Amino acid sequence: MGDILATEADLLGMIKEYLKFGEFEETVQIFDKECKSKGKLVSKPRGNALRDSKTRVIQEDLLSSFDDGDHKVFFELWKENIPSEGKDLDAEIQGLEFYLHVHFTIFPLRSHPDRTEFEERISHFKQYLETRGAELSQNAEFLPYYALPFVPFPAVHPSFKDLFKDTWIQQLKGRLDKFLTMTLKPSKTPRLMTLYVSFSLQLQLQLAESDRRLSSCLRKFNKMQADYHNLIGITAELVDSLEATISGKMISPEYLQSVYARLFNNQMRQSSDFTRPGTVSTQYGRPKEVPILPSLDYEKLKKDLIEGSDRLKTLLLQALRWRLTRSLPGEQRETVLQAYIGNDLLGRYSTQQKTVLLLLRSPNEIVRQYMARLINAFASLVEGRIYLSHIPVLLKILMETLRKEEKDSLTWENVLVCLQKLSLRRSQQTIMIADDLIGWLTDELQDSDCLSDYTLVYYAALLMNLCLRTKGKKKCAENAKLVLKVLTDLLGHENHEIRPYVNGALYSILSIPSVRQEAKEMSVEEILHCYNKEKNQDFNRQIEFIIKQLNSEGPESDDEDEEDDNDEDLLETDLYREELLQPEHGELSGESLLTTEYLGIMTNMAKAKRRSTPLPQSNGDGPLQRPVTPSSHRDLTTGYFSPVTTVVISKLVVTSEDWRKGRRSQKHL
Length: 669
Known about the structure:
Elements (H helix, E strand, L loop, with lengths): L1 H20 L3 H13 L10 H21 L2 H11 L2 H6 L1 H16 L8 H16 L35 H18 L7 H56 L6 H11 L15 H5 L14 H10 L2 H16 L5 H12 L22 H15 L2 H8 L4 H11 L5 H13 L3 H9 L2 H9 L7 H15 L2 H8 L2 H12 L7 H11 L3 H9 L2 H8 L5 H14 L39 H8 L48 E4 L2 E4 L14
Antiparallel strand pairs: 1-2
């Protein structure tokens, strides 16, 4: 209530200030009288005295920082209080800012020379010269100072020795003081008008941006519509031509040439020989050579990841993940991944107590999150999963993090997704089963209504992958009643995206005779028949398979001698969502950070890509019987499950009708 009254008083004060500014004297008197009769408080306008006081403090702080050589405080105040339009457009302000950078760069060499501090400031000066100061290199007045970073002793150099004289410093300070007095001069404009102008300007900018985007979208739409009509017309003609060939009529090369011209009218490179099959496809869209990213100094990288500040660690983890996920698929991405693996980025072969992997135990939550995101990126690639599976301590740390981290946080979700992807590999399944991850997942899934859709899908998919193993089935048999209850309850969950995984887990564990017996005592068949009445025919067929498995009499199968599945890369398209870390002004990040501070020599090592054997197809009606991950089913163009195609999973196929009600999660790597 107090905040509301204070806000009202402040608003009434702004109204009164504006009326005085407009010289509405009688209105001001009536306004005061009416406010007093209604018991309304009117705050005193924050007049020039307050604003003068504030600007004086800012000006004194800037001048004090100038005298003390404190460049960090100075440029922070400079950034906050000097209008950006002037700094970017006014040549006089740009010149003053340039000389201020020179002053702060050489300050450590003035009274008590400090080479270490000087070297640090030289690096900042270089960065300034390459960014904001770059355009001044065309001005002869400033050109000599671009050599300053390469002069070891500027105090005795003929071009720079005058910079160390008191007269130069006093002249620069006087110029700065005069500029601040003019720039920080308080405005007499009332606050109400300032707010209105600010709001109007912001609204105009938003409208202009909306108009620009609308125009762009209309151009794209019109082009797409024209291409669509053109394509429909050509398709109709080609169908007619196909019918004509069936009746024995020949299609001339000239006709094909005309169709080709209409299809690729702006992209034809040369005339095609349509009497020779295959010439069109070879001429259109030849692949371009993909550049290999620069090599990095991985020893320095690992050292800074372990010993650097939390801010540096997080920036490096982000940059390394971006290098992997933003690289082009194919040779470029394979080279990046093989460089990470070949240089043992995560410390698989390290004999040191501290490795990069242990950043998952960092007390800093952002460091833990970005470490989890990098590991998740590794786990999204086949060769990355192979590398991770050979790090003995990895699963222990991941499962420890999963149980300790705050549920549904980005760190927790990335660890969960990473575990689910690693569960595609048998060696990792074995460790997870031995650590009783099945029991933990079962307990978590008992209260499925409290779980987000995203968590529920990955829980179910992870549980199914573990249940497909003989060891996993036997682990489920130890508490068959609870596992069966959880799975049958999940069949009725409103999130139909989990059904393929629940069906796969049920079908698998019912191969155990003791589980089948428990299911019969629990009347699981009657429960399944209740779900068998839905309109989804594919789901109904899967339920029939499960009922058939429930009533079978055969012994359980042993899968312990089977090989790892030849799975594919699972790199999602929205790996860059929800980036909490944003670089500060002038701060290096991403690829620029890696190539500026960590360039190496010949650390990229190409390796032939392991060919993945296509998984065999079968009759296409039963539950999943091979490990899968949810991202492998997603239509990465639209973000939803494909409404047309079917998903082929090893021995069995699940049609996409099961996925049509799936909801896409917005939280990925």
